[in-house]
Amino acid sequence: MSTRGPRQPDYERLAALRAGIRDYLAWAEDRARDLGTTPAQFQLTLAVRADPRPDGPTLTDLAATLRLRHHSVVGLVDRAVEAGLVERRRDTEHGARVHVRLTPQGEERLAELAALHLAEVATLAPQMRALWGEFG
């Protein structure tokens, strides 16, 4: 990019990138709803499943991962517990610390959604790879 600032093709690439991201996110939200969950619950279950710790992430960990405030995560987890997707477990060493783990139903729902996402990302990959390459 020149010191003169962005040019028309730069704006077009940025707009195309943002449109692609928005399209994917809208698709993802629709798939979550199709399977009877909310987009936020999908993000929560994915964050819980992706966490490598055996006890699962804490509420604080989830707040950081999801970029939400602690009280918002508490409410999200409350609703996901009611939906049967996750469960809370108190830390055995630190009683005030709460870990979140998937239930069998949550594992099953997440597996269905993750399979759909992986297939969709595979179809989008060539287009997105080409677009990202234009920024290099």
UniProtKB/TrEMBL annotation:
Residues 30-129 form the HTH marR-type domain. Pfam families: MarR_2. Signal peptide: none annotated. InterPro entries: HTH_MarR-typ, MarR/SlyA-like, WH-like_DNA-bd_sf, WH_DNA-bd_sf. This is MarR family winged helix-turn-helix transcriptional regulator. It comes from Paraconexibacter antarcticus.
